[in-house]
Write a structure and sequence with these properties.
With 332 residues, the chain is α+β, with helices and mostly antiparallel strands. It is 43% helix and 17% strand.
Length: 332
């Protein structure tokens, strides 16, 4: 962990980034800060105007073996499909992963670089066609994931999503800065989601495999009408179909702010795109409201552990309120 304010942490990571890029076979012209959440992201431009993405992971976020499994999946996608995904690049030493330390940062960091993926993000152009393609992309990625052996990214099963023994993010029964009444409702919601999803997982163990986990519109890229995905950092073994919750979560926000867009139309198109590329049973459809509840709880957990990020802090209580409203509305 880096001590100090969010901005001071970013400044220190920028210093580390400047040192890290020297270990890659590129002549750097510019390094730009993009974002800092679970990891730090920088855009690197070389002397020939070619662009790269530099990612700096804390060691507590993923193990070295887990990060290498992410790269393994990306390389299989690149070799076996036409889907656009980030291409990891080798360091001067022929390694995908660089371990780097800096005097201003207390712990060693895992650093990696990817070719920058050009394309468009279509927040303003989201429609049923977009939703259909995202559903199709989700199923295609899951299919490729079956070809990849994964032992170190066991993240998004029931316990990882909404458990309290080994949650991937944090135990939402022990949140800080919320009222006792709200905590009681969140606790009830977690237990409800856990019970139903665990039954489903036990009944369909074959429906677990590699999923992206964060296919929101910020991670969906469009190149000449072809859809691809970026930011596989949170990928891991999880329950198939849960990947549809990230875009659905985004569609929910989008349709509230734009009455011309209808949530159910986008949802149906998303599910149809998914169903046209993989089997989708009635029991799968029945579990989706519980997946969505789990997604909302995970969003709270993510903000709980990143409260030092000033951009996320104002959204914490909003996420609490929206999750409670969803839980009550659906009468779980």
């Amino acid at each position: 962990m880096i001590q100090g304010s969010y901005l001071s942490q970013v400044r220190r990571l920028k210093v580390l980034a400047i040192e890290v890029v020297k270990q890659y076979p590129i002549k750097v012209r510019k390094i730009e800060f993009i974002q800092y959440g679970a990891n730090a992201i920088f855009k690197v431009t070389d002397s020939r105007q070619k662009k790269y993405l530099l990612r700096i992971n804390p060691t507590a976020h993923h193990t070295k073996k887990a990060i290498l499994e992410e790269f393994k999946w990306l390389n299989v996608i690149l070799k076996t499909t036409a889907l656009a995904v980030p291409k990891p690049i080798f360091s001067n030493e022929g390694q995908y992963l660089v371990e780097h330390t800096h005097s201003d940062i207390s712990t060693m960091r895992y650093c990696s670089m990817f070719e920058w993926l050009e394309g468009r993000f279509l927040w303003n152009g989201i429609n049923n066609k977009y939703a259909y393609h995202v559903g199709s992309l989700t199923a295609q990625l899951e299919a490729v994931g079956t070809k990849v052996k994964t032992s170190h990214r066991q993240y998004w099963d029931t316990e990882g999503l909404v458990g309290i023994k080994k949650p991937r993010l944090c135990n939402v029964e022990k949140l800080t800065g919320i009222s006792r009444k709200h905590q009681e409702i969140i606790t009830d919601a977690r237990r409800c989601a856990y019970k139903k999803i665990k039954i489903y997982e036990n009944k369909y163990p074959h429906k677990l495999g590699l999923i992206h986990e964060d296919l929101n519109p910020n991670n969906i890229i469009v190149q000449n009408g072809n859809y691809g995905a970026i930011d596989f950092d949170d990928c891991g073994v999880g329950i198939y179909g849960y990947d549809l919750m990230a875009p659905l979560f985004a569609f929910e926000y989008l349709t509230e702010g734009d009455k011309k867009k209808e949530y159910n139309v986008l949802k149906d198109a998303l599910f149809q795109g998914y169903a046209d590329n993989t089997l989708l049973s009635q029991e799968d459809l029945d579990i989706f409201p519980y997946f969505m509840l789990a997604k909302k709880l995970c969003s709270i957990a993510a903000m709980e552990i990143r409260k030092d990020n000033p951009k996320l802090k104002p959204w914490f209580q909003i996420a609490i309120d929206r999750t409670i409203a969803f839980y009550k509305l659906n009468k779980f």
